[in-house]
Amino acid sequence: MDKNGISNNKGLVQQLGLFTTVTIVIGAMIGSGIFKKPAVMASQLGSPELLLMIWVVAGIITLFGALTNTEIAGMISETGGQYVYFEKMYGEFTAFLYGWAMLAVVQTGSIASITYIFAEYTQFFFPLPHFSEEIEKSVVLFIPFIGEVAPLANIGVKSLTILVVIFLTTVNYLGVKFGGGLSAFFTIMKVSAILFLVIFGFSSGVGSFENFSKDLTFQTSQSSLFFGIIMALSGAFWAYDGWNNITYISGEVKNPRKNIPLGLFFGTLIVIIVYLLINLVYLYILPIDEMVNSKLVASDAAVKFLGVYGGAFIAAAVMISTFGTSNGTIMVSARVYYAMSKKKVFFDIYGRTHPKFHTPANSLFFQAVWTSILVLSGTFDTLTDMLIFVSWIFYGLGAYGVFVLRKKMPDHPRPYKVFGYPFVPAIFVIFSIFFVGFTLYSDILNFINNNFAAGEPRIIKSLFGLLLVLLGVPFYLYFKYKNKKK
Fold it and tell me: Is pTM, for the whole model, over 0.90?
């Protein structure tokens, strides 16, 4: 035990049952996207039928990814999830790049942006302090390829965001069972809030079933409709993202070879149903012409049948949803850096567990510090936008890994074999290739046409995302060199 009370002798403990596992999957997926993305997607598609179809298609593709992951999760039950899977599939280097991407931006950036939304919505109930514009502009830093950073801007929202991150980190420091219990509670709360919106929305009688067949008044060309479908799919995938987070804590789930696959399947299926129901109620209450002009479609729908209390209800629902999602993301993400340290490709201190609480305490607090820096910088949304491209490369590689492991480890016990093999994983891999390719094409096209919003960095985001990942290579070489000297 070191002077901080952190031990490297005792490992993580299996304490999470099937119910908590399912709620962690659901909690990681349902964030803020379902409360605001449908309006943007409606404007891209122009058709209620297409909108519902996109949510179903994106859900099925996500379910294919989850089903594919269940075979690997059933085979390998070590904490670290995808990081450990990549090591078994492709070796140490690819696994390290995955872990580096999660650490540098993807997971820490997600925690920052999700918790920031929670802090923003608290202002519906009470204002948060901020500096004058003069003071906010007094400290401005320039980061190449990212743009200007103003740490003092929105200081009240940023401060609350950091406080919540520290609070939730402390909760998960005190034990995975405690953190898992909190995640289960907030998942139940957020699903209940959505079901309340669905039940009372349909029973209010203020909508019309005719809205399901009324398209936008303007016609969309075939080429723009194609691009609209791709962009709408991207929005839906953002709302479905996080389905694989449960794999990071496989080593802390009871009977992981059974409960991880079941958790992934039932959790993803429940989210698909919930998302379809809430989109049905949005369309029932709001004609698509109204929907496309809505900044927060959930608030506008709720106001129609809840009156003045509608806005407060949705603000509270978003706060509950983002608080729970942030907690779940904090809990699972730290296990990646813990696993990297255990594999000797990251600093030793982050592979130690607390002697009493059996949690990766150092990894949790390291994650909190880096997340807080991202919050102050205000660059997390830009960075995570860049890394979405990289995330889908790893999603595709993870699914293709089923074929790799069937060849490399043919006799290894498989408590669950992916349904519809080889078609289900192949469809997911092909879609991933298509999605990554189109994203790269779209980014290059935007760069050539100078299609950037005011203040947005003029870069090819997908390529810069790859560059950020490759910045981890020197660290990998350092740890390899360090291990050779021992």
Answer: no
